[in-house]
Design a protein that fits this description.
about 600 residues; binds aspartic acid; alpha+beta; 22 strands; 8-stranded mixed sheet; 5-stranded mixed β-barrel; 16 helices
């Protein structure tokens, strides 16, 4: 076994060996994918990051020392080989690999490193359990599909970076050891050794720094930024994730959106090979909620929501009539062509599903293709209301309609979720399509059921809409914000806003969010102070790189697009983090864990 390379250099990569190279002497280096010994001839698949090529060791043509060394080869040995490229016999061609028409007749072999039998199969379609794969992530990373995703990630970042630099943005790194920023999640804290009893926070985003870079006069900033949020585990979250973060001075929302669209377009061009139709459509938050019941609507299928409140005032069905009387709404969707397929069991499951979104029930009405009607409430409806509902909903034989009655946002949200569920259940969503659009004019505040108070819908630095400025004093919770989200295939890709650049407005905002003057100055004094010295009007945006790659690559989980991901309970199975640390380290920080509590 050779310990060092000793001058071995590859002349080409495994995936590059082609018919045009027939007769050429080449040198390859890589990992043994698999070995097949048919007695007298050993076939070895050699793998590197570009692909696989077949090596042939022929006992008759090689000296016995080399042949017996070839016999010792096992999966994942790291080897170097010299040999001659030959065409395969027609019946030996393998269409599954790029180099399947050729093979390399080996004449020299060196083993750089042997390998024990790996604990997982290093093949794309291997069915190893995810926990084992992640424990041995460095082996999992050798799989072609995992490598392709990370190559795609690098290509996406490159497409974004080159676009941003071309547009005159400067990349600035901001600190990781910082002060808590109110992005709405819990902070990860880092206790200071030097400042006993005090902590840094890891940034939830570089929000305040990028605003201060605008105060600092940079005008156009971007960064591929790591962000940290200590949130409860959810399927599609990672405690640390990557954002493309940007900020611009002297801009209106449209200017920022144009740059973000350009960056996305460059990604589509470079990675998927086609361009987007720009500018992207814009839908206000209000319209999105009313039409799709969501602030991140999946517009790859229709089935829009209808508000039928006006039609049901005297319909005969007390649930609907009461909703009207109480100032609530009745909203519905028509799931076209689903009636014949909808069993009673499916209806019950849909009702239970809707209830998880805080509505009391789901009213359904299915008209089979033969005209027969099954419904949970038709028996209560008078003829006039029945005809009106059919007309308003565009119901035709074969269609099924669903209604909920509740407070407006509750009803719309439940209907929006039901729309998505029906879209998935009946395959209405065209998965081959990528649909991007902006959602604009979000409310400035939203009510947090958890905290029982109003919180900033985006973050506290978001500027109200000019038209709504005066409402800040009278009806602050009706104020719309100069904020916008980019949505792709029903997934929020990123959000941004025009910022408050005036210290008095920022102070008012903090006050409305329940911070006292003292508290606001204690936490954000440096920002309020900075705003006193000539702050340019500015705004920005940030979008999640991990989620973008996941969507573009069609992967199911963020873990698939991150080199070393954490699992759902925020731990890393490979390094076994978080982990206990030696007592001396804790002592240095004056920390003591009280695990009894
Ligand atoms: N900092 C914000 C976030 O991470 C994005 C922005 O407003 O630019 O959500």
């Amino acid at each position: 076994m050779a310990v060092f390379l000793d001058g071995w250099k590859r002349s080409c990569m495994c995936g590059e060996v082609s018919e045009q190279m027939q007769g050429e002497q080449i040198t390859l280096i890589g990992w043994v994918q698999r070995v097949r010994n048919i007695g007298g001839i050993i076939f070895v698949w050699l793998r590197d990051r570009t692909g696989i090529v077949q090596l042939v060791f022929n006992e008759q043509k090689l000296n016995s020392e080399l042949y017996s060394e070839a016999e010792s080869l096992r999966s994942e040995f790291v080897i170097g080989v010299k040999g001659t490229v030959a065409l395969r016999d027609e019946n030996a061609v393998n269409k599954d690999i790029k180099t399947g028409t050729v093979e390399v007749n080996a004449t020299e072999l060196v083993i750089f490193n042997e390998a024990q039998t790996p604990p997982i199969y290093i093949e794309d379609d291997a069915k190893d359990n995810e926990a084992v794969r992640l424990k041995y992530r460095y082996l999992d990373l050798r799989k072609p599909s995992v490598q392709q995703t990370l190559f795609m990630r690098s290509k996406v970042l490159n497409a974004i970076r080159s676009f941003m630099i071309n547009e005159g943005f400067i990349e600035v790194e901001t600190p990781i050891l910082t002060k808590s920023t109110p992005e709405g999640a819990r902070d990860f804290l880092v206790p200071s050794r030097i400042h006993q009893g005090e902590c840094y926070a890891l940034p939830q985003s570089p929000q305040i720094y990028k605003q201060l870079l605008m105060v600092g006069g940079f005008e156009r900033y971007f960064q591929v930024a790591k962000c940290f949020r200590d949130e409860d585990s959810r399927a599609d979250r990672q405690p640390e994730f990557t954002q493309l973060d940007l900020e611009m001075s002297f801009v209106e929302p449209k200017d920022i959106q144009t740059e973000v669209e350009g960056a996305f377009n460059n990604v589509f061009k470079e990675v998927l090979g086609y361009e987007l139709n720009l500018p992207l459509p814009r839908i206000t938050w209000k319209e999105a909620m009313e039409r799709f019941g969501s602030d991140k609507p999946d517009t790859r299928f229709a089935m829009e929501i209808n508000n039928v409140t006006e039609s049901i005032q005297n319909c005969g069905f007390s649930v609907f009539e009461d909703a009207y009387k109480n100032g609530n709404v009745v909203v519905g969707i028509n799931a076209k062509g689903t009636a014949d397929k909808l069993s009673r069991k499916h209806m019950d499951a849909l009702t239970e599903f809707a209830k998880t979104y805080h509505v009391k029930g789901l009213a359904w009405y299915a008209m089979n293709s033969d005209g027969t009607v099954r419904s949970s409430f038709k028996k209560f409806l008078n003829d006039e209301a029945n005809a009106q509902l059919i007309e308003k909903m565009g119901l035709e034989p074969g269609d099924a309609m669903f209604f909920v009655a509740d407070k407006k946002i509750t009803a719309l949200t439940a209907m929006g979720q039901l729309r998505l569920k029906l879209g998935k259940d009946f395959g209405f969503i065209d998965n081959t399509r990528h649909d991007l659009h902006w959602i604009t004019e979000f409310p400035l505040f939203e009510y947090s059921e958890d905290e029982q108070r109003y919180v900033a819908a985006h973050h506290p630095f978001t500027m109200p809409m000019t038209e709504d400025f005066e409402l800040m004093d009278t009806k602050p919770y009706e104020v719309r914000a100069q904020s916008y989200d980019l949505v792709m295939n029903g997934i929020e890709m990123g959000s941004g806003s025009i910022r408050i650049h005036l210290s008095d407005v920022q102070e008012k905002m903090f006050r409305l969010l329940g911070f006292s003057h003292e508290e606001a100055w204690k936490r954000f004094g440096f920002l309020l102070e900075a705003f006193k010295y000539g702050t340019p009007p500015h705004g920005g945006f940030a979008f999640g790189i991990d989620r973008l790659i996941m969507t573009l690559s069609g992967k199911e989980s963020l873990r698939d697009v991150i080199a070393f991901p954490k699992v759902q309970n925020a731990s890393c199975l490979m390094m076994d983090t978080p982990s206990a640390v030696p007592q001396e380290q804790l002592d240095m920080l004056h920390l003591k864990f009280d695990l009894e509590q």
